[in-house]
Amino acid sequence: MEALYVALVLQWVIILALAAAVVALFRQVGMLHERLGPVGALVLPGGPKAGATAPRFTLRAIDGRKVVIGQEGGARSTLLFFLSPTCPVCKTLIPIIKRVAEDERNRLDLVLASDGDEPAQQLMIRQHKLEEFPLVLSTELGMAYGVSKLPHAALIGPDGKLAATGLVNSREHLESLLTAQDLGVASLQEFVTKTAQDRAKIEWVGR
């Protein structure tokens, strides 16, 4: 009888230990998923940082429209999207950027930016039905915003400050710029890192 009681106790100890191990494993998997999950547009070195005054440019789009980038005192944000007719990823993103511009039309203006051969740009506009959006050609604009790889996007707030910027290759990356602006952070990378640090501090204090 005593042996049966001891065996039963040991069985429950093992069950509780296994349950604790499973909980710990799920927690580690969750933390790993958070670290490896999409964290938004990749912020590259160089160029102005989020929170800085956006470089201001007054340019003419290839259709003749006047385009002011980085203007203060407006009521709308500007999404500056750098692309090229020779960039395959840019072309796959065009339908997505058009959809984002449509979804955010109440608060956002989309400006396309490129450089190089104008006939090739005109062809890209016709092929992808981009006539609605101004496209400016300016090497200086890309340099001022630190564009080293494409596709690249910069979100400028109504106050003329750079809200978020980075390399983008998916809708999630594009939307992360808007989310970062709403959260008041430079990027979702910063937000995720800060959240993880705050969580670690809370766990440490709770020990």
> What is the count of structural domains?
2
Q: Provide the spatial order of strands within the biggest beta sheet.
A: 5-4-3-6-7
Shape: elongated
Round the mean pLDDT to the nearest integer and report it. 82
- Stretches where pLDDT falls below 50 for ≥5 residues? 29-38, 191-198
How far apart lie the N and C ends?
40 Å
Structural class: alpha/beta
| Total of helices | 6
List keywords for this structure.
207 residues, alpha/beta, Glutaredoxin, 2 domains, 5-stranded mixed beta sheet, 6 helices, 7 strands, isomerase, oxidoreductase activity, membrane
Task: Please give a quick description of this structure.
By secondary structure, the chain is an alpha/beta fold. The longest helix has 35 residues, at 2-36. It contains six helices and seven strands.
